[in-house]
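About this split. The held-out portion is used to measure sequence recovery: a designer receives only the structure tokens and must propose an amino acid at every position. Recovery is the fraction of positions where the proposal matches the reference. Here is one held-out target exactly as it appears in the evaluation file.
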């Protein structure tokens, strides 16, 4: 496992469980996997591991960095490949299985599961040894209370989901409507759980506990349906954002902006929108702003900087809005903002902002060769594509993952010339290029090794 021990899947599933089972297990530091994802399967091959795990993000990250000429895997001994912790992509499962089939990985190794921390990790597991199953349903019948309509996977109106199995021992699952009334098979509703593995409440938070439970049933915040005791997860009712297998709550990020970016609570809305290509959510931040677009650029920069510094996340887009939709009780209606975004209502505003940002971009003729190469690498991994030579990359929303990917690419051009910590000393392209050029010219002595 490469998953961190601060994550319930990494801690409970792939550290505590092997210990209790007296099974030999190996832990790869997460930062090593981020930098060298191919090493994960290489070590699994070397150690002849039988069980592996990763959320969608890990499979996508591996495929993006995969170099066939360096692959010397033997994965025939891998029996189970856990896939969970965030919504599971059918497309990604298939791409990963196709890529690794040449190394002996069997299709029936892919093992999609469903769980959450409130259930001490596990809720449903599929049958072992069987190929994972998918179902395609009509996208216009996916609200709570709708009866699912199964259609061919090739239908343009279809959405495909991975079936995640049946409840584990001592855990019970049901589907309920918004009023907490149980629903029959084939009907979409709220996924609720109860059992010996389910928490009795949230520590020191009686209001959250009361809101989460309907009698003895814990509402997971996810949506899905059951057929013949097998669960399929279709979405979520709670406004949770999934990024690289980790969960983030919009109100937490909004509170962070209030504390660090001087944006009042209620005047910023953080939303997640699913990116099927990456298998994670993109983060959108809507900010109440009624001045001209030119005056919004510093606000957007501040939002990216503070979210990156304090939460380690990249922001896909920061969007000014002249009205923040709210309920009569004052709660932000984030889903309305997402709907407006998906309908293209902010297209003109975003185009204007991109044009303004582009005017600050460096021209190729103004760059040295090293600067040009560094700039080309950075724009591939930093969400804010318009990067000036003197822009602090951390203020543009460079996540820890993006930083590791940038460092890995630079190290391919100039092996051993930089350390990842150099980015913190030289956070702009101009500064980093100048430092690198001095090292290439031999004008800098190696740094002394310190404890």
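Reference sequence for scoring:
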């Amino acid at each position: 496992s490469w998953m961190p021990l601060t994550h319930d899947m990494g801690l409970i599933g792939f550290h505590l469980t092997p210990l209790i089972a007296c099974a030999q297990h190996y832990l790869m530091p997460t930062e090593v996997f981020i930098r060298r994802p191919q090493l994960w399967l290489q070590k699994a091959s070397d150690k002849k591991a039988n069980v592996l795990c990763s959320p969608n993000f890990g499979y996508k990250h591996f495929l993006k960095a995969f170099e066939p000429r360096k692959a010397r895997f033997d994965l025939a001994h891998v029996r189970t490949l856990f896939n969970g912790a965030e919504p599971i992509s059918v497309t990604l499962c298939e791409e990963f299985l196709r890529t690794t089939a040449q190394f002996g990985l069997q299709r029936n190794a892919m093992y999609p599961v469903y769980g959450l921390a409130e259930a001490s990790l596990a809720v449903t597991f599929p049958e072992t040894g069987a190929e994972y199953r998918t179902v395609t349903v009509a996208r216009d019948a996916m609200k709570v209370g709708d009866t699912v309509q199964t259609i061919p996977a090739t239908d343009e109106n279809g959405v495909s989901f991975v079936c995640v199995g049946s409840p584990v021992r001592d855990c019970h699952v049901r589907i309920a409507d918004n009023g907490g009334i149980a629903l029959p098979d084939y009907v979409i509703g709220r996924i609720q759980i109860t059992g010996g593995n389910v928490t009795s409440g949230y520590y020191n938070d009686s209001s959250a506990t009361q809101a989460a439970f309907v009698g003895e049933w814990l509402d997971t915040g996810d949506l899905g349906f059951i057929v013949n005791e097998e669960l399929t997860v279709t979405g979520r009712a709670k406004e949770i954002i999934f990024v690289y297998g980790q969960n983030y709550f919009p109100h937490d990020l909004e509170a962070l902006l209030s504390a660090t970016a001087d944006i009042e609570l209620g005047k910023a809305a953080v939303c997640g929108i699913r990116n099927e290509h990456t298998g994670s959510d993109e983060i959108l931040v809507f900010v109440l702003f009624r001045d001209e677009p030119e005056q919004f650029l510093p606000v957007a920069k501040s939002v990216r900087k503070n979210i990156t510094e304090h939460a380690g996340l990249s922001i896909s887009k920061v969007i000014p809005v002249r009205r923040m939709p709210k309920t009569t009780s004052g709660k932000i209606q984030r889903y309305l903002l997402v709907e407006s975004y998906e309908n293209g209502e902010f297209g003109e505003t975003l185009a204007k902002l991109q044009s303004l940002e582009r005017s600050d971009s460096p021209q190729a003729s103004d760059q040295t060769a090293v600067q040009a190469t560094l700039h080309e690498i950075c724009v591939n991994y930093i969400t804010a594509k318009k990067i000036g030579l003197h822009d602090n990359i951390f203020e543009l929303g460079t996540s820890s993952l993006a930083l590791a990917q940038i460092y890995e690419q630079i190290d391919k051009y100039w092996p051993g010339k930089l350390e990842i910590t150099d980015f913190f000393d030289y956070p702009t392209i101009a500064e980093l290029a100048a430092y690198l050029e001095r090292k290439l010219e031999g004008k800098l002595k190696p740094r002394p090794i310190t404890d």
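Annotator remark: The chain has four domains: 1-112, 117-238, 241-358, 364-440.
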